[in-house]
Amino acid sequence: MHDHGEHQVAGDELDESEIHNAWHSFPPTYLAADFRLNNDTAIFGEEFDAEWDPDEANGHRGLMMLHVLAMIGAYFVALPIVLALRAANSPAHYLVNLGFLAIAGVGWLSGVAYSAATPDRYIGNKHGSLGTVLLLTSIALAALDSLGLISRTIAFVKSDDRSWSAFCSQVFGGKTARWLDGPNHRFEMVGLMDRQSEEVQQRQADPVFAIGGEDDEVDEPFHHQSRRTLRRESELTPIHRDSAGSDGTLHEPGSPSSLGEGKRPSRLGAFDFDQAARDPAVDSDEPTSSSRRLSWRRLGEIILTWLRRFQVVFAYVVTLLGMTVYVGMCRGSFVNACAAHFIKGSIFFGYGVLTFARYLGAYSDLGWAWNRKPGKASGTSAEMVECSVIFVYGITNTWLERLGSHAGDPYTVRQVQHISIAIMFWFAGLIGILLESKSVRRVLGSMLGRPRDMHEPPSYAFSFNPLPALVIAVTGLAMAAHHQRYVFQVQIHSLWGLLLAGGSLCRFLTYFFLWIRPPVESTLPSRPPTEILTSFGWAAGGIVFMLSVEEVSWAAMRAGYDDMMAFLNITVALTCFVFCWVVIILVIKGAAVMRREKGIERVSKVDLGHARV
Questions:
Q1: What is the pLDDT of residue 398?
Q2: Torsion over CA of 423, 427, 430 and 431, rounded to 10 degrees?
Q3: H/E segment holding residue 124
Q4: Where are the domains of the chain?
Q5: Rounded CA gap, 255 and 247, in Å?
Q6: Fewest 10 Å CB contacts: which of 84, 116, 401, 434?
Q7: Where is this region: Disordered (predicted)?
Q8: CB proximity list for 454: less than 8 A, separation 6 or greater
Q9: Cα–Cα distance between 429 and 423 in angstroms, integer?
Q10: From residue 150, how far is each of 88, 153, 161 by CA, in Å?
Q11: Quick check: 492 and 552 in contact, CB under 8 A?
Q12: How many helices and strands in the chain, by DSSP H and E?
């Protein structure tokens, strides 16, 4: 474990001899070979012997640049677009997915070529093998997704009509019935409502996409006419179908995505809706073999959905491993410190990104977008999830802080500091879980008895649980005062600590304003502006958390970049870039949803016209 030097005065200049004596030096890295570094230009503590010749280091910078650009472009640019289009059920995702695999293949091949052309400069690294697993997973998921497309293509080839319009209609699902494509229909998230939304029952609303709010009203007369016609002709009962994968897209009664057969809502949610309409046994109270098969298929789709989206997280982990291998970090006794900073910093960064997505309208069907939960269905609150994660995080870190210590070793000041923070996470998370429990709330409310005139206040419809933000704020303030070996390290820890605490302060303001007027009037995202600042503080704090690892700080000091303003500006720029990309992805998804539904409405309008004739 790394030593923070709790009882030493923080120094201004890097003591190379002390670092080399305490942690030893490491051989040349891939970075040193590609950029022809020597003892005067190396910044990650490499030690070059007399035989090292930068001009004959056998570097292949071009291959590495191609590998980095291709893999980043594939998994952080193309793949999110694929997932967005797939969640919107757009046929375009097949073509984009093909491009994604092509780019990923180029990146993988360039990485293999680079590894074959250079000696192994990081013994025991797993970056290459994990990258191969990642690519094979992507190929397998793409092949599985393409089974329906292949079967429809074969059916088209065997048909008599070989026109382009027939190809688009049969293969890519241009017909209304095709948008729910049997077992290949996209069950994109588990946030499904079994009951009708009260808001939908009260008014006839156009489809509303949570990003942007306004929707076109071009076909408004047709909406009302088609709803009346469909109800009259087929006597179908509308159900409310919301998916967290839709990020706040609400389907009104009468749309092709909200019609089902029977006198009560379907229990299938979004999965295989057309098959459910053909099989009345699916909605019966008695379990049948058909309903059991559909349940298993539904479970399989949920698992596949999580696997598809986990590719981005997996790619992020592989990217971090690749960076550490390339520059030669996290070797020897540094591995525990690296793991702690990268894992914890990544958690805060991801938490900030998800918080920003909630602000934009993601998971509004679960009531997580600062909105009234659609329908009467009960579900887990976002605060319950946050408290549960904090609880698990605290339990695991309580015991991990002693890694590297021997039995009987006394507890150091640093260990006591970190263990106490972990215990705070543990029990603060547990308190939050108890407060979010409806059973606990019901028991606490029973102390007043149950008078007939008792009415719940509006605030009961929303969760006001500041404990997650409180835990993060205390962690940030504590780490801002954390002693370090060098002044620059103290500054960097103070920076990310204040960013986390500032984000938590904005979350407190969010609860304050929403307590004054709870978001109980609409299922649309209320988008409190303080949440932008909350998400920004947590995401930026997570990035600086990762950059505060000792080897990065020392490298910055060696290169003359030990400037807190530079670190802050780089972090702010990167955070803004990531947030901008999140907005673009959700806009792409929303545009695809709107385009798909308008196409379905046009086809339905034509079919209704033919039916009248």
A1: 83
A2: -150
A3: none
A4: 60-191+298-328, 336-445+461-612
A5: 18
A6: 116
A7: 212-264
A8: 448
A9: 10
A10: 20, 5, 17
A11: no
A12: 21, 2
State CA 437 to chain mean position distance: 25
- Structure letter (DSSP) for residue 74: I
Residue 298 tokens, joined: 């539904």
pLDDT for 31: 92
Confidence tier at 463 by pLDDT (50, 70, 90): confident
* Cα separation, 32 vs 111, whole angstroms: 17
Distance CA 283, CA 288 (A): 10
CA-atom Rg of the chain in angstroms: 28
The CA distance from 594 to 585, in Å, is 14
Q: How confident is the model at residue 606 (pLDDT cuts 50, 70, 90)?
A: low
60 vs 173: CA distance, rounded Å: 46
- Position 450 scores a pLDDT of 61
User: Which residue type occupies 429?
Assistant: G
Question: Percent of the chain beyond pLDDT 70?
Answer: 75
Alpha helices in 210-254 (DSSP H): 220-234
**CA gap 364, 357 in Å, rounded:** 10
Here the tokens at position 491 are: 């500054």
Beta-strand runs (E) in 65-170 = none
Question: What's the CA gap between 239 and 252, in Å, rounded?
Answer: 9
- Give the pLDDT confidence of 508-526 residue by residue, as tens digits: 999 999 999 888 888 888 9
Spatial CA neighbour of 177 closest among 269, 106, 277, 74: 277
Token code pair at residue 12: 């201004």
Taking alpha carbons only, the member of 188, 171, 193, 183 closest to residue 88 is 188
What is the model's pLDDT at position 573? 97
* Residues 192 and 299: beta-carbon distance below 8 Å: no
